[in-house]
Design brief:
Blueprint lengths: L20 H18 L4 E4 L2 H8 L14 E5 L5 E4 L1 H10 L12 E3 L14 H15 L7 E3 L4 H9 L4 E3 L1 H9 L3 H24 L6 H14 L4 E9 L19 E11 L2 E2 L2 E7 L4 H20 L6 H5 L21 E4 L6 E5 L16 E9 L6 E10 L4 E3 L9 E3 L10 H17 L3
Parallel strand pairs: 1-5, 3-4, 5-6, 10-16
Antiparallel strand pairs: 1-2, 2-3, 7-8, 8-9, 8-10, 11-12, 11-13, 13-14, 14-15
Helix pairs in contact: 1-6, 4-5, 7-8
Length: about 450
C-alpha cells in the first residue's frame, strides 16, 4: 500500500504526517496554472463549485451548488480572485490567508451572479459580473485574450460578450488539471472510500426482508455524517424488479425475501467524492442472481487486471460486453452501465471509459489517476441484476483498489432465517431428505 492510500485519522495532529492542506492547495493551483499556460486562454472563470474549490480552496456548503451564484477568476499572471456572498467573502478574508495578494490585500471579494434568473433581468447583475471580470482582465493586459468559462448562465455570457470579451470553453482546462491527483488528494479520496466501507458494514447488518429502500438511505446517510462526511450526495438503493432496468433513484419499495439489492453511495469528505456500488441478495440468492453477479465480477476483474500506465480507455472497454450483449439496442441506450469515470472533487471527471466514446477517442491511463470502474449484468430471470463498482488508484505498475467492502462474491444479507447458499435448491434437497428419512422409518 502506498503512503497516499494509507488511512489515518481525520484530525490534524503534531505527531504524525497526515494530509498537508497547505500542500494540497498549492498543488491544485499549480496544476491549474500549468494547464492554463498550455492553453491559448488569457484567464479562466469558474462558476462550478468544484472548479472554484480547486482554484481557491473556498467552500460555503452544498446548499448553493445548483445556483451558479459564486464565481472565481484565474489569469495567467495573477492570483485567484473569488467573488462570493458578502458575509462569506468577509469570512474568507479573515480565515483564508492564501487569498491575499503580495501587499496583504484580500482577493476574496463580495460579488454575486444572477442566481439562475431569480434576480430581475433589469437589475443589472449580469452586467455587474461582466464589469468585474473586464476590470481584472484590463488591469493585467489580457483584455484581448480569450476567456475560458466552465458553465455560465446566458445573461452573464451575453454581458461578457457585450463588454468585448471573447468567451470560449474553459472546462477542459479544469478537467485536464484535475485528471492527475496529488498525493493529498489520493489520501482524501481513500479516506472517503473507507467511510463508505463502514457504511456498507452497517447496511449489510441492517438489510433484511421488510425494510424499505428509503430506510437504507437514511441509515447510510447517518453513518457517513457521523463519521464526518461533508455531503451525502446520494444513495441509490435499488431492489427487486427495480434492478432491471436500473432506474438510478431509490424509492419506498419494501424489500422482500430473495430480492437482489444494489446500492451506490456517493458522498464527500473534505470535498473528495465516492462512487461505490455493491450488490447483495436479501434472505436468499437465486441461481439467476448468482450467475449475474459472477458475470459482472468477471468483467470487473478483467478491467482491474488490465489497468496500468500506458494502456488506454479503449483497451479497457474492449474487455466489456457490447450493449446488445446485455439487452440494449446501442451504446447510448446502455451508457453508464459498463462504465468508468474519474473521481475527485466531483464524481464524473476524466478519464471516461465507455464504448460510446472510448474506442474512437481513447485516453491514456497515467500514474496518479483515480477512477471508478462499474459493471452491470441483468439476471436471466428478467427480474434482478448485479452492479459492482470499484475505485482504483493508478500506480507505477498497475493499480490499487481503495474500495474495500467485500465484493469478490455475492453476499447474502438478512439470511439468518433463510437458506442463503443455494436458495430454492437447498429447500428441495431438505424436503427430499426428509421424505427419504420418513419413508425409511415406515412413516
Amino acid at each position: 500500500m502506498s503512503s497516499a492510500t494509507a488511512t489515518l485519522g481525520t484530525m490534524a495532529v503534531d505527531w504524525e504526517q497526515r494530509v498537508d492542506f497547505d500542500r494540497l492547495r498549492r498543488g491544485r493551483l499549480e496544476r491549474l496554472r500549468a494547464q492554463l499556460e498550455r492553453s491559448e486562454l488569457g484567464a479562466v472563470l469558474a462558476f462550478d463549485f468544484s472548479n472554484i474549490r480547486y482554484m481557491t480552496a473556498t467552500h460555503i456548503g452544498t446548499w448553493a451548488m445548483d445556483k451558479l451564484i459564486r464565481f472565481s477568476l484565474l489569469t495567467r499572471t495573477g492570483k485567484p480572485i473569488s467573488w462570493d456572498f458578502g458575509s462569506a467573502a468577509r469570512h474568507h478574508q479573515l480565515h483564508n490567508p492564501w487569498l491575499m495578494d503580495g501587499e496583504g490585500e484580500p482577493r476574496a471579494r463580495a460579488g454575486i451572479s444572477t442566481l439562475r434568473g431569480a434576480f430581475h433581468p433589469d437589475a443589472g447583475i449580469a452586467r455587474a459580473v461582466a464589469a468585474k471580470i473586464k476590470r481584472e482582465l484590463d488591469a493585467e493586459g489580457l483584455s484581448g485574450e480569450p476567456l475560458g468559462i466552465d458553465v455560465v448562465e446566458p445573461p452573464v455570457l451575453f454581458a461578457l460578450q457585450e463588454a468585448g470579451i471573447r468567451v470560449v470553453d474553459g472546462q477542459q482546462v479544469f478537467m485536464e488539471a484535475r485528471r492527475i491527483k496529488t498525493s493529498d488528494e489520493i489520501t482524501l479520496l481513500t479516506h472517503a472510500a473507507a467511510m463508505v466501507d463502514a457504511a456498507y458494514e452497517d447496511l449489510y447488518d441492517f438489510l433484511r426482508p421488510g425494510v424499505r429502500e428509503n430506510e437504507t438511505v437514511g441509515l447510510v446517510a447517518k453513518k457517513l455524517y457521523d463519521l464526518g462526511s461533508e455531503y451525502v450526495e446520494g444513495v441509490n438503493a435499488i431492489s427487486g424488479e427495480r434492478c432491471s432496468p436500473h432506474p438510478h433513484v431509490y424509492s419506498d419499495r419494501l424489500i422482500r425475501p430473495g430480492d437482489p439489492a444494489f446500492f451506490d453511495i456517493l458522498h464527500s469528505f473534505n470535498g473528495y467524492r465516492t462512487c461505490y456500488y455493491r450488490t447483495f441478495a436479501v434472505g436468499s440468492a437465486s441461481v439467476a442472481q448468482r450467475d449475474a453477479y459472477t458475470r459482472a465480477r468477471e468483467y470487473m476483474d478483467l478491467a482491474i487486471a488490465a489497468v496500468k500506465p500506458g494502456v488506454t480507455t479503449a483497451d479497457i472497454v474492449r474487455l466489456w460486453p457490447t450493449a446488445k450483449e446485455f439487452g440494449f439496442e446501442d451504446e447510448e441506450a446502455a451508457f453508464g452501465l459498463q462504465y468508468g469515470h474519474g473521481v475527485g472533487l466531483s464524481i464524473w471527471e476524466k478519464p471516461i471509459f465507455s464504448r460510446l466514446v472510448s474506442l474512437d477517442h481513447p485516453e491514456i491511463i497515467e500514474e496518479g489517476m483515480v477512477f471508478a470502474l462499474e459493471t452491470y449484468w441483468p439476471s436471466a430471470d428478467g427480474v434482478g441484476a448485479a452492479r459492482i463498482e470499484e475505485e482504483v488508484v493508478v500506480t507505477a505498475s498497475g493499480c490499487e483498489v481503495i474500495t474495500k467492502f467485500p465484493a469478490e462474491q455475492l453476499l447474502v444479507a438478512g439470511g439468518r432465517r433463510y437458506y442463503s447458499v443455494d436458495g430454492p435448491m437447498n429447500l428441495l434437497r431438505e424436503a427430499q431428505s426428509h421424505l427419504n428419512t420418513t419413508a425409511g422409518r415406515g412413516e
